[in-house]
Specification:
This protein is of the alpha/beta class. It is 47% helix and 18% strand. The chain has two domains: 198 residues, 3-Layer(aba) Sandwich (Rossmann fold), CATH 3.40.50; 120 residues, Tubulin/FtsZ, C-terminal domain (60s Ribosomal Protein L30, Chain: A). The chain has a ten-stranded mixed β-sheet, sandwiched between helices. Helix 1 crosses helix 5. The longest helix is centred in the last third of the chain and has 32 residues. The protein is globular and about 95 Å long. The N and C termini lie far apart (67 Å).
Amino acid sequence: MNLAVIGFGNAGGKVVDKLLAFESNTGRSLCRFALAVNSAEIDLAKLDYVPRDNRILIGQTDQRVKGRGAGADPEVGATIARQDHHEIERAMDGVPIHDIDGFLVVAGLGGGTGSGGAPVLAETLSDRYAEPVYGLGVLPSADEGGRPAFNAARSLTSFTEATENLVLFDNDTWRQHGDSVETGYDRTNEEIARRVVTLLAAGELDGSQISEAAMDSSDVKRTLATGGVSSIAFSSSGLESGTREEKGLISRFTNGHDESRDESDLTMKVHGLVRKAVKSRLTIPAEIDSAERSLVVVSGPPSEFSQKGMRRAREWLERETDSVEILAGDDPREGADRLSVAVLLSNVTRVDRIDALQDQAVDAKSNIQQQADTREDEINDLITDDSGELDPI
């Protein structure tokens, strides 16, 4: 799948930077065009892989922003995205529109620029282009406080409605004890990149071997065409101690090589990796039987593939999701040192984390209003004398 990828806001730009880095390090092809849009100049300067000409600063003429950020206010983020849409659209003129399968808008949903601006951009792209527009949203951790939860819950509604499908990543699920804020975000961004690129770059002509069971962009697009919210599962394993070719060479001298045992081992390995992926951490935890459609990509050296293992894994996933809408394919990577599995669960409808986020957001809204009312009374008490005898100038 070839995409035009736009990171909106600080978190969105950093994730896109990681996508490009992972592509470069693994020889894959996903991002045919990459753009970073932000209201904070310093955040754009920190990017390493997004071309400098594709880093767009918005809000420079807005008195509340002036290149210093939206102040965690999504209303400001949405406003400057609309005000400066011509700047963004000019940058989008560089998109090789006849060579992409869709757009991917990436944003953190707890701040201001991304949570407010990303849905605006997604809606604009949907109106302007025929290609599908997908979203990748990063939820704030619960311990970041009420304001980020309030922003995220509001943005989630707008972002989902503005995109063909919104893949979510939950920071709460991925933070490790003892992580600093910067270290934690950097590591989770790498996890996002690994899952998204492994899944969406499968089947592209990037110099890798082409398989008869290769995944292509139409498979991905069909799986994502459900709308709603989606999650990605991932698992990987080291290769066998020797490749199948090495084992075959040894067998010439030992006559002890058992090809049926090799096939059985690989069948179990592929099947086991798919089960492990789905049963472990998803990008956002969800009840897998609430998924409408699923897609499985097995990536690694062709010698480690097993079509029988993929068939068994697909049958198992059909039972687990209670759906026959399961597509599966492989992505041969001759030089890979691991066998990886990525599973897309599309349109999951039972997601406890979203319910918890919404509850936290409702409480935060009530507290914000109550604090504002109390603060106004306290200010009046402070600047007014008790007897009311002093008149303001």
